[in-house]
Amino acid sequence: MKGRFNASSLPDYNSEYLHHHFSTSPSTSADKLDSRNFTLSGDSKDDYNEKNTLSRLQSLKVNFNQKKKEPFIIGVAGGSASGKTTVCSEIEQSLSNKRVCVISQDSFYRSLEEEEKVLAQNQSYDFDHPGRFYHAFDYDVFESTLRKLKEGDDVEIPVYCFKTHSRLTTTEKIAGADVIIVEGILIFFTKHIRDLMDMKIFVDTDSDVRLARRIRRDIQERGRDLDGVLTQYEKFVKNSFDDYIMPTKKYADMIIPRGGANKVAIDLLVEHIKSKLISINRNANY
């Protein structure tokens, strides 16, 4: 019969189908999903099936619109001792009324095997190499952690000891946040991780300045001596920066020359981040 509604002929609707076939504007008649959207006639059994079908569609539509908000992820890359931590700290302080967490890629260094630890003690292990078979970071754990945070879940961040070149048994719990700042030398190297970021920043600092900072840091905080720091820099750090880190600068949305010393650039960056948060309707209130 012409115009007769047969519920069994309907496809098995899901939220993905609704996303493509129903308007998201509440002002349209299609969104009301009532009987006026169909030209129907039939017996009481058809009416019953019709109501069940419409109810199911309406429920799916509501569930689809209630998708959980994703946090805003900011990536801060740059060479070793370029000032990434200072930039991250400035961003975090400027967003003090938001739930902000900072994650360092350094936390995801692999625990070295015994033979690798011997190489590290002799400054013969490359901690800056991103390769598939010879790599310093645990990219799988790093990526899965960022994906969980992107979904709003709590995560456990590894704690890495630079003196023993291994992870500790303790972890740091990070609760869901509105803004997640991720910093590290190679965070832009893989596309999967880049694609998780809403904004990418590259901190560009002179190589001499980075070397001086690295010497102070590694001697004071990581138990290294001057000869060891210089040997590591000459054998691995400089080459890795030129080959793997500097080329990722092209993926950055914003470049900050001179790192944390560039207060003007950081202030402009912070204002830009605030405007981005407002534009994506995250109820920012500054």
UniProtKB/TrEMBL annotation:
Pathway: Pyrimidine metabolism; UMP biosynthesis via salvage pathway; UMP from uridine: step 1/1; Pyrimidine metabolism; CTP biosynthesis via salvage pathway; CTP from cytidine: step 1/3. Residues 73-265 form the Phosphoribulokinase/uridine kinase domain. Keywords: ATP-binding, Kinase, Nucleotide-binding, Transferase. This is Uridine kinase. It catalyses: uridine + ATP = UMP + ADP + H(+); cytidine + ATP = CMP + ADP + H(+). It comes from Acrasis kona. GO terms for molecular function: ATP binding; uridine kinase activity. The keyword Manganese does not apply. Its EC number is 2.7.1.48. The keyword Cytoplasm does not apply. The lineage of its organism: Eukaryota, Discoba, Heterolobosea, Tetramitia, Eutetramitia. It holds the Pfam family PRK. Belongs to the uridine kinase family. SUPFAM superfamilies: P-loop containing nucleoside triphosphate hydrolases. One of its GO terms (biological process) is pyrimidine-containing compound salvage. Gene3D superfamilies: P-loop containing nucleotide triphosphate hydrolases.
